[in-house]
Amino acid sequence: MNVFESAGVDGLIITGATNRRYFSGWSASDHAPDRPTGVMLVTPTQRLLYASSTNLSWAASEARPDVETRPISGLWQPVVARDALSLGLKRIGFEDAVLPVASHRELASAIGSAADLVPLGDTVDATRRVKQQHELASIRAALAITDEAFGRAATYIREGMNERALAMFIDQQFRDLGSDGNAFETIVASGPNAAKPHHTPGDREIGVGEPVIIDMGARVDGYCGDLTRTIWVGQPTEQLGTMYHLVADAQRAAFAAIKGGAEARAVDRAARDVFQAAGTEELLLHGVGHALGLRIHESPFLSQSSSDVLEHGNVITVEPGQYQAGWGGVRIEDVVLVTSDGYENLTAAPKLLGE
Ligand code: ZN
Ligand code: ZN
User: Fold this and answer.
1) Please, are residues 260 and 341 in contact by the beta-carbon 8 Å criterion?
2) How many Å lie between the centroid of ligand 2 and the Cα of residue 336?
3) d(CA 221, ligand 2 centre) in Å
4) Between the CA of residue 201 and those of 163, 165, 188, 254, what are the distances in Å?
5) Dist CA 148 CA 153 (whole Å)
6) pTM of the prediction?
7) Which of 24-38, 51-65, 134-148 has the lowest mean pLDDT?
8) What is the whole-number distance in angstroms between the Cα of residue 288 and the centre of ligand 1?
9) Residue 248, helix vs strand vs coil
10) pLDDT tens digits along 320-346
C-alpha cells in the first residue's frame, strides 16, 4: 500500500524538514517550525518543491530529477493551495505532527471548502521504516565513520582528561572523516555521570576504572549513525565488570529475538528478562532501541508500550543499559538491519571485555 492509500488522500502537503528531504533530496533544515525553508506538494504523479528565490537554485541543484522546483514569495499557503486545487485534489494530507496551528489556519482558509485537509498522523513516517538501498548505503557510511571515530577516541582517552575534551575530539574526527555533522550531541558521561542516559559532557575528569559511556553518531547524506560503548581507563572495578557482562548478555538476548514479523515489544522484553533475572530491571531507564534514518529516533520503537512489528528492511538500534544513581552505568548500542529470518549487525566498533 502506498502512502496515498494508507493515508486515504490524493495529495500531500509536506512542511517538515525530514519528510521534505525524504521526498525531494533537498538537505535544507528549517530555522523555525512556522518558517519552513521549503514546502512540497506531492501527488502520485508529481513532486513540487516550493522555495524562496534566495534558496531556489540550491533546492534545484540537490533535488532529485523527478522534483519540480517552484519559486514562492510571501506566504506559502495561498500559492500551494491554489496549485493543489488546480490539480483537482480533493483530500489533501498535511503533517499535523509538525505544522503549527497558526500555519494550518492560514492553509485552511486558503483551501476553503474546495477540498478536505486530512491529518497524516504517522502514515508518512511509517513509509520511511523500510529503508531503500540508497538509504542503507548512507546509513552504512555514517556508521563506518562513527565506528572509526570511536576507535580513535578509545585510543585517545586518558586519566584526567575531561568529558568535554573527549567529546570535542570525537566531533573533530567526524569532520575529518567526512561526516556532514552530528546525528546528535555527542555524549561522554564518566563515573556517576554515567547514571544519566542523556548526560551533557562537562569538565569532570575521567578517573581510572570507572565507566565512561560514549554515545555518538555521524551523519551522511542526512542519515544518522548511532553507537554507544562503555569503556574505562586501566582495569574496570568489579562492579563495572559485572554490570558490563550483564548488559552484554541482555543485548545478545535482544539480538536473538530480532527478525521480520517479530513484535518490537518482544525484543525489548528479551533484554528486560535478563535484567529481571538478575533483579535489576528497575536499573533499565529506557526502551531497548529505536529505528533511525533521516531522524535519530524513528519508528519502530523497542519498548514495552510499543505496538510496532519489525519488518525486513528496518534499521534499529539495540541498546540495553543499567544506571545506578550515584555510581554510574553501562550502555552498549549497536545498529542492526532487520532481515526476514534475523538481522545483520551493521556496527563494527569493538566491544571490550572480549565481547
Ligand atoms: Zn546512541
Ligand atoms: Zn540510540
Assistant:
1) yes
2) 11
3) 19
4) 5, 9, 5, 29
5) 9
6) 0.93
7) 24-38
8) 11
9) helix
10) 999 999 999 999 999 999 999 999 999
